[in-house]
## 1
Amino acid sequence: RFGLIVVHLFCLGAARRLHPMAAADGPPSGKLTVQAADGAQQPLQTLVTFHAKFDEVQFGESVCVVGSHPSIGAWNPEGGVVLKTTDEIFPSWITTKPVPVETFARVEYKYLIRTQDGQVRCWETYTGNREFVTTGAEMTVEDDEGHYRQFVLQAEAEDEEEEQDTISKALTARTPSIRKMVFDHKMNMVEELEGNVKINTHTTIFMVALQLPVKVVKRGGIYALEDEAPNDGRNFAWLPLVEEFRKKSKVRIVCVGWPGVHADTFNERAEIEKLLAKRNCIPVFPPRQDFEHYVSFCATFLWPVFHDVMTFFQTAKPLAFDMGGWAAYQHVNNLYANAVVPHTHESDIIWVHDYHMCMLPTFISKRMPKANIGFYLHTPFPSSDSFKSLPIREELLSGMLCADQLGFQFFAYARAFLVSVKRTLGLEPSFRSGGFIGLEYSGRHVMLKVAHFVYPFQDTQMIVRSDAVQVKAAEVRKLFEGKIVFASMDRCDNLSGLVPKFRAFKRFLRTHSEFRGRAVLVQYTFESTVGYDPTNALLNALRDRADAYLQLDDNGDLHINSKGDGECDIFLRLEMVDRIDRLALFRAADVLLDTSANAGLNLMPFEFITAHHDDEKDHGAVIVSEFSGCSRVLLGSIRINPWNTNEVVAACERAIKMSPLEKKELNLCNLTYVAECSPFEWFKDFLQDLSRARKKEGVRIQNIGFGAKIRPVVMTENFQKLPIEAVCGAYRRAKNRVFFLDNEGTLAADSRHLYREYGAPKGSVSDLKSRGSPPDEQVLDCLRTLCADQRNTVVILSGRDRRMLEDWFGSVKRLGLAAERGFYYKLPMMGGQWHCMVQDPDYTWQSYAFEIMRQFVKRTQGSFIESKGSALVWQYRDVDPYFGSMQAKELSSHLKDLLFGFDVDVLNGKGYVEVKLRGINKGVAVSRVLQKITQMYGDVDFILCIGDDRSDEDMFEAVAHFSSPEDAATDNTSSQLSTADGESDGHSGGEVQHAHTAQPEEDQLGPMVPESSFMKTRKLSSGLGSLPGARGDLMKLSSGQLGRDDSGNAAANQKFFTCTVGRKPSAAHYFLDDVEEVSEVLSNIKLQQERSGRRQSKDHMSSYTWSGGDLRGPGMRVASQPALSSLAFAPIARQRP
């Protein structure tokens, strides 16, 4: 029997050597028979369609495909299959009917040109035989560089355009009912931009602030609730607002905060908790000492910082940062989180208030990763120059960004926050339809809302009309009868601008002596949260400048305590007053004088306007500082710079001399705004937007980091650390393995940020230098071991040029390389020669782009140009972020105009502007390599794809579509696929601007992948009729169904691992922490390979027959019988180069 096999092979081999087609211009020696992989007597069939490209065919000649299978002639030219063409698709030639071939058969073939009389004119000039392995029900063998497929897409686009024109013409003849339907449809689309979000009645809203809106007091050893809310300038408004919202929306609202007293025993705490539970309040009991330290840190450090005051750092003797205060701040925030979390559910809403609680979102999200958290900052946000000097800047920003929505009083404060976030964390704001703005942070979209707190006009109006206010207002008027009263109430600190106010008012009286004795300034000032020192320098300065004090006598009546016998111009009241006294003062006053150096909103002007809501004549005038937030909305006020004394004096004069008509108009302007704004609507809008910002379902949130810098990172549900044991097990079982590995940041440490070119480059584009990090010897040794196994295909994909990759990896034999993100590639199965994705690429555009980039380098300090072969990159990562962004937009605009007509993309990414050839990225390269391997070696049953930056996300998407196109199509997680690939030092993807709309050409490796990554193949409706290969076969070829048995048996054995380096949102399913862990994975696979090699050497003689038969059992891929010249005593699976 063996003798027959040898003679058979020998005779066939001899016949091939004597056959005329075995010459250099014919098909070289190889397999002559086709055998099914499973050895079935009646194998399944695959319908194969051929696409070829021949442009040197004379009139009357035809193209024919001839190969080893009987359906294409069994190497007999007369039995080959003829390909057809038309004027529209020439030079593409296609088979009009699919050719049936047994499934999982390996077929060799070549194309030839026949004359009109059927004689062979010549064989194609292709070294060796072409070959493919049939898989699936249908497949397309595409050897025309995608020309026919591009024609299909262009024909579809033209059909769609004609259809749109037809629809547009039909719209002009609509009936009124149709127009009404269209109108309603468009209105629904507009309304859907905002979304219909309602607060569920089963939802609980937790309002977390430093202090509860109700105050607990201890009288006679018994705890009780005060009838009036704490009076700190804002808390008085919370309680009625909460009660109104609770009543109208039927939603449970729970307030969390300090009750106003310290409970030392467990019984006291239980008593207070029981007392507050009746008012839906949860008390927090921090240790007394820690709480005092915490409040002091907030008042003496955070309060000035958020108001842009840095005197403790910017003095001759700067104070050391209070680390104890910072520790107390974190500790108290953590205690508040401990009080909130046990009572909440993921469906609830947690609304955190003000700078006292910046770290609270961090501690809540640590315990409840999917909690819906909102944070509202009632103070301003400091400028980036001030904020960046803080030693805890990252911690504060990270704490705020752990919330789902951040609220600011005015956009100026939100802008300062965005600038600080960009310069500190490198985050760019993003905009969404419907007017939403936010930040992409660790895979989450943190929304920003700008809406100032709304003063409760309706409730205050009723209080102003009360007898209590009217009586006290009359008492104030009596004290200053016949005088023009300038009034104000401010916190006793330097931010209130009290000293400049007193100084300016004194100058006003000196300058305008006619008002001396007729105009007075009545200043109420109250202590800060922690009180003030009686010997405080500011307090002493105020006492020196004040002429008299306002005090209460034993009967509770207000009287004047003069410092001397002279005329009194400035009256000072040093005590906390309640809301009734404030409204009485404003009701009696004629002018409000505000000189705040920096105030978030400042509710005092709103109170003054409300106190004068019913004035029929002698309307009050409002003077506000331009550094106070209310000046942006109270357009009827007189705006001043409090540091410009002359301007303050002029404003005081104008307020007195203003005509009654002008006063009435300005007062009406202010009153209309204050009266129409509803605190209920403000409250509801914030909660609705916070509900919209809720974290998505179907994602997993993992906390990354330590201490105060911990942050929640959104991952897909199956995102986990790469299981090395599972990888090694899948590798051991696999027979056709593929590795896709990035270099810098994956195999080697990323040191690109250490290199930078200074100044404008000299010379031409070819003189630009590119630097990178080569892998170490340990990694190279692992690669050598992997490449030594004929069942492995290892490909390194990098943005570096061919020369650098050859220098770094040239010592590794059988290693595939893809330089410039796949623009140039060489694969072991293709002879190890460099190939280009684009035939005859046009580099003319590089000269234009280089010259304009060089001009921008001269004018943008810190920028430089980097060459990546097929791409040019203008890097501005070291430039001031905002200046760099402006220059980048300008450069992108110039490049788009200048390169119009070239087949390039202009990408404006994070820290760079890149010009690159269109359609070139790692995902395209991976998809085509997988297609080539599947055609030549059959099913791929193991893939390990590892990368670290944004450009590698294309690889992960391509592998995902190859392994499971159905799952990839239905995946509702956000894709991390970059729109135009850029190996951009870890930068996120940017905006692609096409220089023109021509479709990119394809190389000889095959089609592109599905629409979600690159394109979409659809049905053809053209003059060619129903040509094969225009639908499902192309989709299966591109989507990875090659190598997938319809029964699912093959897919069950496939193992695909996509892994990103670093824990971050990614399209990969796994992650590794750093380069060292990547090396560890490769080392483990190397060890597995070495063990497998030793076992194979022992079982070598018993595993294979000397004639090439495979004794390993059914289901394994078996190659066709080799010719005698290639017979060897070794495993006969397809020999890889």
## 2
Amino acid sequence: MTTLAARADTETPAPRTSSLSNSGVQSPHHFRSTSSNFNSNILQYESIPLLGATDSGSWVQRWSAKFNELASTFWAAARGNTTENAIRPIRNSNNVGSLRVNVARTRSRRTLSFQVYIWASLAVVFLIVILGVLSGGRADKPKTPIDLPDLASRLSLHFVPTRYRLSLTVDPESESDIFVGSSAIELKPITKSAVSNITLHSAGLNFTNANVSLYGVVTIPIGPSEFNSEAFLDQSSISSVHHSIHRTSKVHTSSFEPLHPVQIIWNPTFETVTLVFDREIVQPDPSMALTLVITYTGSLGYRTMRGFYRSPVTPALDGAHPPKKQRFVAATHFEPLFARRAFPCFDEPHLKAKFSVVVAVPSGFTVVSNKQVEEVVEMPNVKGWYVWRFGDGIIPMPTYLVAWAVGKMTFVETKTQMGARQGTVVRGYVYDGMNEDYIRFAVGVALNSVKFFENMFGVPFPIEKLDLWPMPDFSAQGMENLGLCIFQDSGIFIKASRQSNRSEENERSKVIKDLTVESDPSAQIYVSNLVSHEVSHQWLGDYVTMTWWNSLWLNEGFAEWAQYYGTNISYPEWKIFDKFFELEHMPVFEKELGGYARSVGVRDESSVNRTADIIRMFDDTTYSKGASVIRMFQFWMKNIEPDPQFIGGDNNTDDKFECSTWCRVVRNYLANNAFGSVSPSNFYDSVDTEDSSGLISAAMQGWIEKPGVPVVWIDQDSAVRQERLTGWRNSTLIPASKPRKPDPDDKGWFLPFAYKFVEVNVTSPALSEKVFWQFLDSRSETHIKVRSDAQKLLIANPGRTGLFCFKPSTQDLTLYAAVMSQDHSILSPIDRAGLVFDMVTLLLSNYVLPNQSLPVLSYLKNERNPSVWSVAVQQLSRLLRVMEYHNGYPDVISFVQKLVFPAADYVGWWPSCDKENHAANSFTMRELRSIILPFAAYLKHDKTVNASLKLFDKWVESANVPNVTNPCFQINEDKGIMIRIVYETAMRVAPLPTAVHLRNLSLALPGAMDSDRLFPLSVSEFPFHLKILVEQPGHLLNKLEVLKAVAKNGGQIGVEMSWEALRWGRVPSDDETTSQFQSGWEDLLASGGPSVDDLVEYVVSSGFKGGAVWRDAVAATGSSGGGFGVYPQNESPVLTAVRRGLERAEAAAQFRDVLGDLVKNAI
């Protein structure tokens, strides 16, 4: 057969033109205690067998139907028609978005008279109740209409929870998806006015009035040792098992008898339930807590990644044979609004309470929760079931941090050594049958992070243990539940092996010692940062918690900042802080460039008043920009007083820790708000304890509340200027004295501005160690002392601590090109990464000219640092993409090849694992190889292309799945990179035969059919290959990665195909009364999240200005011409993403028109 290697060529990658029309349509747990005093803690209360437990909402639907009958008869009577044919019940929609309020009545069904006036009277009564509810009238008396929550689902509070006692019964591997729960909530009145109703959150949970009781005293629990022996119950009935655990118990009563609600009002739109009682709720004894008890059923979601759900465990682990029965693991994910899907609760972050958890599961399962498990007891009356009781919570938590998980697991553990004080147990879990060594890397990072953060924050770890639990499906990558962090398993497993004797396992230190890590460096960095991030949350987010989601940066921004210290203390040789710009600043600039950006924090809570608004707070702006602003002011406060040692430095160890100014700020913040709910003002107050002027806290608040990022330069009068960085600046050169006219509300930023100099008038450049600091006032001019010697190069923002781009002067740009070509190591890696970013960004935004920026970038042919190249690859890819349809594109390709190919020659193809190849297999070399080779393959680097094609031919000719571990890598991270390069290269050279081989199920090729062997089709030159990708089955929201690949790799044809799928695709309808399918675009507008926003923006920005995608995108915004810049304040964020995409597409068009020829001439 003809090999692909024989067909390789080295011609320039050519852009593709669109062939589409322009219409645009289309194992056991280690216990802390073995106390037998079980019966004083296990949750016990009156438990009534669930009515209609297997018939979701049967009573609600029954009485709702009765109301509809009455209403229909009333209006028929009004028309003079009293015949039986006039009774036509209105269909009760199950659509979650319906505004219908369902009413459950407890009285018996009465025989109705056929007289018209009786029908009419009853109907009027029902209508008055419904209209009163919908009108929002407040109920201070029994049976009076009550408030419904607003769009923020904020509860109208008369009571607040102080403690929850939760009990769950579940079998993750049952054919039934039902779990049964009981929730006993101790309530505290917070208003003086007496009310007869309680409103709380509940979504997808089933219970009736008979399952709800309100007690004025706490019930007396009956422990397992007091259970009466009963006949064996059918364990297939989860409800029966749960009822056998929670037997009816006697309740102490005085003048206040247990109450059951007379009415239950469900509001599926706001996910609330209101319990209406027939009398005012009055405590007979204020010293005794009111206790609301609800027994309910819920659905154990399948791979829903929210609420309480289960996921299948990969059948084959480490080459083990698949089990005969599919295994499942179950866990919770409640952030931000999903606790209500597992238990009725007051689901708002400021409503902290203490929690106790009891879980009943079949034998063989391990259960974990926030607290240490105290006892596991076999149920005497239900064969094969065990009750796991966890310690009583003593730390108040918001509902979104409550957690439990169930699975057949094994674990490894270690423990911090803290002298006389009892240390913290750190445990990592793996699926049963999996190599335990895979969790040791994460456990080691968690252990080091716990010890370091205890020193850094001056607060012991909040509770006695920390569990790390994997899930096959997890939407948030990691979740910081107090004492139980849950991760997407790819974010916690690292392939590793131990050389030490396994008999030494009892030595805790052996858990992480002698560990040989085999995973790709990028995977190690990702897992280390993620684990450290979640560990830091135990203080920053759990110990103190933001009051509402508009201040989410107090949780996520701080954890994103702190994660680098946990990684640095574990692996200082990585120099992780050099990656801060790459991992944090770059996403901010990408997000904040131009208009339509939001601020990190929103001052007004009501501005984050929709579920979509809350979910979209979990984005790069909150995480990366929040962390960047924190780091910027951390370094500024460092200059208030000299710090002998800086936190996270090489000299900070467990035995000796020097706390810096910023460290004291954070310690004060934690100490003053321990276990509380906080707002930004609480943190700013802590800043003021170290800066009595209040200037720093005011400046920081401005950064938090102001969207966008600045670009800074120094004019000819030595005045430092700034303006908001835009996608395209309207003038070619920055004016000498004044910036462009600012927007009316654009007052600039208070900016910590640092700079130093490089002496370039000597044989070799010399960098001055002295750093100058200026605080730039946003309202007045700031002048700096610039050098009079023309041979001094000003280096602004050393260390890249400031969150801004800097435009060097024309003279400095010339000096930069000379210095970097002579000795680029004069600058630190993070400064070089920042310089590369600035040069491309300022070029594409029309702040510098091509003949100024491109000569500076020419030094990259000598660059060998992975962090710098990670930034460079992304930036050079941006430049190529913008120039793709300009006639200077081949020249740009040639220019980029000259920069990249020397680095590709340096790293080479993956070598064998022989000892003589140690240098080629170092951490840094492996990291650089994974960054450079995919880009080099795209640029048609001869050695990379030939190696790829020869390997592909070898795989195709192999009769069995080829062994791809011959080079020096062992697991999917490395293998995945090689597979991607090989398949994509083959598709570019010979797309037709390669596609046949990749989609041939009978051909044993490496990689998964639905990913590794599917996505390479996106680089094909044939549209029908792209169509195969776009038309993959599944919901639109599950194809975002596919559409991104098509738009990224498929040229304008791919862009148009992706946009057509987004804009005109159809999805299954949720409304049974309508057609089977509905508009996918409308679905995206209503339920899309940050990932949808990012994809929409990318696709639109990749289209031609004036082209099919452009025109249809403009139409989608309801605008015409260039009017897409004006938009309603409360429009769907998806439409705002469309506007951002249009803005960037226009900037790209202007760049090609104005500077495209200059780029070609400058190369």
